[in-house]
Amino acid sequence: MVESLSFCLVAWALSLNASEFATHPFRGVTLITRTESWPRNETMHIAIIDLTAPGVRFKLTPPGGARETARQTTLDFLNQEQAQLAINAHFYLPYPPVDLDANLVGLAASEGVVYSWFEPQPVAPDYIDQSYAILPYAPALNIDRSNKAAIVHFDPIRSENQHVVENVALWNAVSGSAQIVSNGAKAIPTYSGPPGGLNPLAGYYSATNSWYAAVHARTAIGLTADRNTLILFTVDEAGGSLGMTPGEVADLLIQDYGVSDALNLDGDGSTSMAMEDPISQSGRLLTASSDNPLGRAVGSNLAVFAEPTPERVVPLNIILITNGIVLTWPKIASNWTLERAPDTTPGHWSNVAIQAESFPDRLQVVLPRSDRCTFYRLAQNLSPTRDR
Fold first, then answer.
1. Distance between CA 300 and CA 28 in Å, rounded?
2. Entry pTM
3. How far apart are CA 164 and CA 170, in angstroms?
4. What CA–CA distances, in Å, run from 186 to 7, 52, 195, 206?
5. Interior CA angle at 302 toward 75 and 253, to 5°?
6. Per residue in 225-269, pLDDT tens?
7. What are phi and psi for residue 107, nearest 5 degrees?
């Protein structure tokens, strides 16, 4: 007989210009790989984290080094912490870096240790003014010890920049350049000057040539209105993907993922998302870095810890090609069968009648691409001598 287990991959065509593939590698974690061909080619990785799921917790890069943190790639941080998922987080200085020591821009807390507070622009007399891109005292996203998440804001009334307006316990806090989604609406900053706007940079950035209008790799973090779901977003600017503007990111988060509040984190060559393979338990970089094949060493990373799924799951990986898709799965799952269906109704599943190619580490099939909705899964053949 064949035992059908939890879906390893759900694939559907959003339109003729887009495809989206979702996996559930860990309990409370949905990972989406999404491609677009309009208005330009894009590859996005979106992690949807259920903050109420048992075992889900977080950790930001802790303080270390001669400044505030020691720079590290997102993949190295994932492996070091034995986490299941990680993304890059804060903007950092000095940039370009002179060594592995970094100062983070804005509020940062790691497991209850607050080591960087709200900051003006420039953050210190010996640093350049980045107010053309980063708002002074920019908001942060805090996830407390109980996974209650909220946007937190600088309290201008109290001294030393070391207080938030909200009555929360700072635990893991991440700051970016600005809040790009606020209460379900796009909130891209303008060049209106302080206290709430950006300053133009002569010859470079202004109201007619905003830093936020540039198309680059992007990282963002957001919350749904009920505060029960955290969205981690990356878009590549490499490997055929051309990047997005923060405004485009904001629109997509609002319209397609129900995000109510979101921050723009460090992007461009810093954009990175890494994940532990749920079968081999080895880390791998999901994003295609425009800086380094293994990702840039950045000032901070946010790690996500999650439990294995209650049922055994084998990851089904996807590679898009010009006229089709390539589906691969680990060689250790050679007794699993690839199935497809037009929906998830029991009895509608059928074997994909294509012989899988065998490689040293994987099995692979190449399928034609279609604009019709198709679901794929792996089913374990527990008794190959009997038919279902």
1. 23
2. 0.81
3. 9
4. 34, 26, 19, 19
5. 105
6. 999 999 999 999 999 999 999 999 999 999 999 999 999 999 999
7. -65, 130
